[in-house]
């Protein structure tokens, strides 16, 4: 068993047990190491807390769980996936498409677009962290939304939604094509929302062969 | 005037005037330098030919023009944009959306997905070449297709199309989400084609404020 008295490697602690923001900072540093070494599935809350030299309960206290710690520490996502998913699922399914677009653009706009290119770079790399990121985005965001809708072809629908959102982010924050780069959020919700809605709940009429 | 006898910098010629594949190779190397130094608009066919030590007519002979040279040399695109655009515009406008998707996936699949991540890296960089790439993709492919359709909001439609295509490429070739990563082309044409068609010719019903 790890205890709160265990010290992190490196010996940089200032002679007292970490508390408050120190604990949070130590957990983020430890999480980056452990997720990078073991991937998303292989990293445990206990191993991260042990590496940070704090009690495992501190992960829940400061982040609400492994998912949110991963989102904050490794992805530096500007949102908590669990909170986003439950907010999206509270509203009407008929408006889910445009609500996802509105939420997506609002969230990334708030970082002044600075965080989205970093996410893309992570996604495009070929290390364990990229695999962890893919699993995380699919398992913890897309699949949770799709599962609730109970549509056919859930994995395909999740991928189609991801394609439109990633592409919208690429055009708005990375390639910066105008007018999409500076278009108002309601324009984007109106223009792209129906695409998302069809991918979520529409009839896809796929060819038989597959 | 430059003449075919001008030598490229570096003195690596094997003592004879470049001909055939030598000329083509020299033009590609020169084009990479000149486009990188001057951007797409600033680079002239004459400057590139001069740098390569060949006559400017060789650019048309080997590549059909500045656009195709840029596509081959700098973007390493696996297609000639002019040829793609005219092929797309020959068919019915009603099926343009799915024909674009089919063409996009067929083209990049043929490179075994290897070229798409390179395109994304170029697009995400912040040098002159990235600006040149953006201008090139918009001016020479998207706008040419959109102009022919004569729809409202042509720039917005071009950006929306770009967002879905780039996102589809990201999911299929970079993030490699299944089942989209290995889905058959006809599945993708059926699933994504209607999105493209709406972006091209559909009623976008944008809010008044913009």
UniProtKB/TrEMBL annotation, chains A, B:
Segments of this protein annotated with the region Disordered: 1-21
Entry keyword Hydrolase: no
MF GO annotations: DNA-binding transcription factor activity; transcription cis-regulatory region binding
Keyword check for Amino-acid biosynthesis: no
Domain of life: Bacteria
Keywords assigned: DNA-binding
Pfam name, any one: TetR_N
Signal sequence coordinates: none
SUPFAM superfamilies in the record: Homeodomain-like, Tetracyclin repressor-like, C-terminal domain
DNA-binding region: 44-63
Residues in HTH tetR-type domain copies: 21-81
InterPro entries to which the protein is assigned, alphabetical: Homeodomain-like_sf (IPR009057), HTH-type_TetR-like_transc_reg (IPR050109), HTH_TetR (IPR001647), Tet_transcr_reg_TetR-rel_C_sf (IPR036271), TetR_C_16 (IPR041678)
Protein name, as recorded: TetR/AcrR family transcriptional regulator
Organism per entry: Amycolatopsis acidicola
């Amino acid at each position: 068993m790890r205890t709160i008295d265990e010290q992190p490697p490196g010996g940089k602690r200032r002679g007292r047990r970490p508390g408050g923001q120190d604990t949070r900072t130590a957990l983020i540093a430890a999480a980056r190491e452990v997720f990078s070494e073991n991937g998303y599935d292989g990293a445990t809350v206990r191993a991260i807390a042990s590496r940070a030299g704090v009690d495992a309960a501190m992960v829940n206290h400061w982040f609400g769980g492994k998912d949110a710690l991963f989102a904050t520490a490794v992805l530096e996502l500007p949102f908590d996936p669990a909170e986003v998913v439950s907010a999206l699922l509270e509203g009407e399914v008929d408006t889910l498409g445009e609500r996802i677009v509105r939420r997506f653009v609002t969230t990334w706009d708030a970082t002044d677009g600075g965080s989205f290119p970093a996410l893309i770079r992570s996604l495009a790399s070929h290390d364990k962290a990229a695999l962890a990121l893919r699993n995380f985005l699919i398992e913890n965001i897309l699949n949770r939304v799709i599962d609730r809708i109970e549509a056919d072809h859930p994995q395909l629908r999740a991928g189609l939604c991801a394609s439109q959102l990633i592409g919208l982010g690429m055009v708005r924050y990375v390639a910066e094509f105008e007018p999409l780069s500076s278009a108002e959020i309601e324009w984007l919700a109106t223009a792209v929302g129906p695409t998302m809605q069809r991918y979520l709940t529409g009839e896809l009429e796929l060819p038989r062969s597959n």
